[in-house]
Amino acid sequence: MGLIEITKNISYLPASEDPLSSDVVFITKENKTYIFDVGANDEAAEMINGIANEKIVVISHFHEDHAANAERIKFDELYASKETIKHTHTGSVISDKIVFDDIIALTVPSSHAKGCVIIVCGDFAFLGDCAYAGFKHGKRLYNVYQLGQLIKLLEGLDVKYFGMSHYKNFIYERETVLTMLREQYAKRTAGCDFIEAIGRSR
Known about the structure:
Layout: E1 4-5, E2 10-13, E3 16-17, E4 20-21, E5 24-28, E6 32-36, H1 42-49, E7 54-58, H2 64-67, E8 77-80, H3 82-88, E9 92-93, E10 97-100, E11 103-108, E12 116-121, E13 124-126, E14 134-136, E15 139-143, H4 144-155, E16 161-163, E17 171-173, H5 174-185, E18 194-196
Parallel strand pairs: 6-7, 7-8, 8-9, 13-16
Antiparallel strand pairs: 1-2, 2-5, 3-4, 5-6, 10-11, 11-12, 12-13, 14-15, 15-18, 16-17
Helix pairs in contact: 4-5
């Protein structure tokens, strides 16, 4: 499939369906490559292992399509939430946020999975699956409180675009994503802790 360039120093390997594997983001600096998510397919593992310079990996959450290749790749440093590291058995914990060069990795509230992390670089925030609903009792559900907190956090980011893993175009304008989330949040009802997801929500 190959890399798709977003900017001169940011590119991504698109997600695949068979096997299910997330988008993998590569941010290239002079002597380092920052990698957000490692996917689960052979192409992602081979691409990561083929990078010669220093590799710093951040994993968005513990689901296999985003984290399975952690066992197959070589890296210099790996960061993730405490929950994710329970599954990868390697790496350093991001408890709030970490700053690398001009990249920020921070934990975010999410209905999709416990311990989600996003990264922010320039005009872009890469969200992994954090904006998607979770699954409970066979339904795609948002936790009302977590969704409200996520919207506030994303509204506070000084970026123009969000990267949404598994979506066809991957990069979307900030307001497009926030509008989708606000529409979900508007479906909340008094006394109910969950909102059933409307439209597409992974």
